[in-house]
Amino acid sequence: DAGITQSPRHKVTETGTPVTLRCHQTENHRYMYWYRQDPGHGLRLIHYSYGVKDTDKGEVSDGYSVSRSKTEDFLLTLESATSSQTSVYFCAIWDNGHPYEQYFGPGTRLTVT
Amino acid sequence: QKEVEQDPGPLSVPEGAIVSLNCTYSNSAFQYFMWYRQYSRKGPELLMYTYSSGNKEDGRFTAQVDKSSKYISLFIRDSQPSDSATYLCAPDQGAQKLVFGQGTRLTINP
User: Fold this and answer.
1) Chain B positions in Cβ-Cβ contact with residue A48 (cut-off 8 Å)
2) Does the pLDDT of residue A42 top 90, yes or no?
3) DSSP H helices in A1-113
4) Cβ contact, residue pair A100, B32, below 8 Å
5) What is the pLDDT of residues A2-38, one digit of tens each?
6) Beta bridge partners of B38
7) CA A11, CA A21: separation in Å to the nearest integer?
């Protein structure tokens, strides 16, 4: 357990509303990631962070923004949610002590109606 | 073409069978190859990883990489119902990033 929590765990929202998902870690890892998981697509990287205020885009970043003002928190924002953003969102960290291992949080199930 | 291709299954086998899970990839620069296991409604967990070509064994699990054909395999011997999960291959893309296959959903029937 790498001390990763995600909130909320479940959310239903309407099209056009803003949504923010939070990832919190307790072990001071530098790298943090947001993925989405959809049937037939596996895990796809949305954004990642390599330090406070240092972020970069992943494969499917359109419609998403992120912020990291503290080491322990990485926020994912959907500025105006669409039905295509209905998915399960996972946060992950890169374990400093195990260089090829990413630890994942429990996931957030988001439904956009 | 995706960088990593994995048959999504589903794959259903009887308990005790040998299971073979496979991925192909296109980027010859990949050096490390990870296998993750994901139980239903949980986050993925690292199962094992291999470096470059060759085999690596861990209990009932064997990971195999053939870089010449860009083919990654995971074998499970004496499969158990507790092995029922989705298995994702994930080559290391470099710069602390992984690229994941689609995942294969496996069910072991008692």
Assistant:
1) 96-97
2) no
3) none
4) yes
5) 689 999 999 999 999 999 999 999 988 999 999 999 9
6) B86
7) 9
